[in-house]
Hints:
Elements: H1 9-18, E1 24-29, E2 37-43, E3 46-52, H2 61-73, E4 91-93, E5 96-102, H3 114-129
Antiparallel strand pairs: 1-2, 2-3, 3-5, 4-5
Amino acid sequence: MAVYTEVAPDEAGDLIHKLGLGDLHAMQGCAGGIENTNYFVSTSQGEYVLTLFERLSFEQLPFYLALMKHLAARGIPVPDPAQDANGVYLHRLRDKPATVVNRLSGKSALSPDAAHCTAVGAMLARMHLAG
């Protein structure tokens, strides 16, 4: 399981509420991943992923999160970091950088075929066109 840092439901719920994403109904550690702590969270408003960054610092993350916001705003199906009332999408949880993003549908393709590669290439083209 890719949970390196334990987060209590009340801690997650406080962040979810601060982001205006409703009330926390459930949270479960994600089984995949190699570097970050991820939890699937269900709220009264939808399904999200809470990520605590285990290696990247607060100073390194704004570029990546801003890129995700930029691509999501242009219709690219990427995780979209939720913002609080002040427009902030990078938070501190358990003394680590944290964010909450929408949960995308789908699953990992552990044995990709030619169709998967074609789809990745098409998405890469869309990302480049998004500016």
